Amino acid sequence: MPPKKAPEEVKNNVVAFGRVRKNLKMGCVGLPNVGKSSLFNLLTEKSNPAENYPFCTIEPDEARCAVPDDFLCDLWKPPSMYPAYLQVTDIAGLIKGAHKGEGLGNAFLSHIQAVDGMYHIVRAFDNDEVLHVDDSIDPIRDLSKSYALLFLLPDMLEKDQPVRDGTWTSAEIELINEKMQLITTKPTIYLVNLTMKDYLRQKSKYLPPIAKWVTEHGGFPRDIIPFSIEFEEKVNKMTDDPAALEAFYKDSKVKSRLDKIVTEGFTKLGLQYYFTAGEKEIRCWTIQKGCLAPQAAGVIHNDFERGFIKAEVVSYADFYSLCEGGKSMAPIKAAGKYRQEGKTYVVQDGDIIHFQFSELMPIKSVRG
């Protein structure tokens, strides 16, 4: 008898776990009163209550925020512009027994299970005027507590390892996705909320131990984004006064982290986008990483996938560097960077694509 094949291993569980669709959600989680609702309001330009007491948020709220990218829109200035969006959900604070459905009940668990990734907000500032559920500031204690409350699989708890970081076969991942809906399969970004003073000096006594804790629990340094609600709210108040904002940035020597938080969340979910561009419209189309050209065309319309012939492609970076400030593809073609791709082409993040379709199709091509 031939030897049995070894189980197939999936090396990137962050993308393999979860629901495969284009409108994935990031949820804001953490202990009560760490800045979740304030961050949600800043990201989504909403004005939900964000008061100085635990459990100000009870029911989750969902909104979307645009993934920042202005170059093509500023260049083409079309009548219609459709950016890519990230869905974000504001979830009530974690409490003891939350993983068993205590506190807000099983509805609380369903709120977290309904998102595909997590912004784990951690408080890293001392301020007696801002209440803390444990009456003292200790980010490592808070991280450990939140981490334990989110776990649903005991054998992974014993290993102190999220389910997403285990070694699984495709069949096992499919079973976990379908039957178990484990919270620890969800990719996580750790957002460390600093005082404005610490953010301006880009230094905090809490950051080194937080980084150590994250890397010891399956994360990477890139999964940590220091930011400051205090700083971001000040910036937000100046959005209608560009001159004052520019002067503030010049004086402070640091920028807002909101764009990075959005783009990192989008990327962490295994999402990317490509553009169709024309005189009338610039549009971003959200796809999964690894998507082939026909599948990417199918995001526009199912018929486009079935009738796919080829894709005329220029990378975002090539267009940016070669367009000479104009809309024409002539300089890109002259540089040999405008190419034709077939059915096996894996669409890259930021590609600008012109699809062509079968003559049997009602529509032969689309530019935007």
TrEMBL record:
UniProt source species: Phialocephala subalpina
PANTHER family cross-referenced by the UniProt entry: OBG GTPASE FAMILY (PTHR23305), OBG-TYPE G DOMAIN-CONTAINING PROTEIN (PTHR23305:SF7)
MF-aspect GO terms: ATP binding; ATP hydrolysis activity; GTP binding
A Pfam family this chain is assigned to: YchF-GTPase_C
Ranges for domain TGS: 270-357
CDD domains: TGS_YchF_OLA1
The keyword ATP-binding is assigned to this record: yes
Highest taxon of the lineage: Eukaryota
One of the record's GO cellular component terms: cytoplasm
Signal peptide (from-to): none
InterPro entries linked: ATPase_YchF/OLA1 (IPR004396), Beta-grasp_dom_sf (IPR012675), G_OBG (IPR031167), GTP-bd (IPR006073), P-loop_NTPase (IPR027417), TGS (IPR004095), TGS-like (IPR012676), YchF_C (IPR013029)
Protein's recorded name: Probable GTP-binding protein
Residues covered by the OBG-type G domain: 24-247
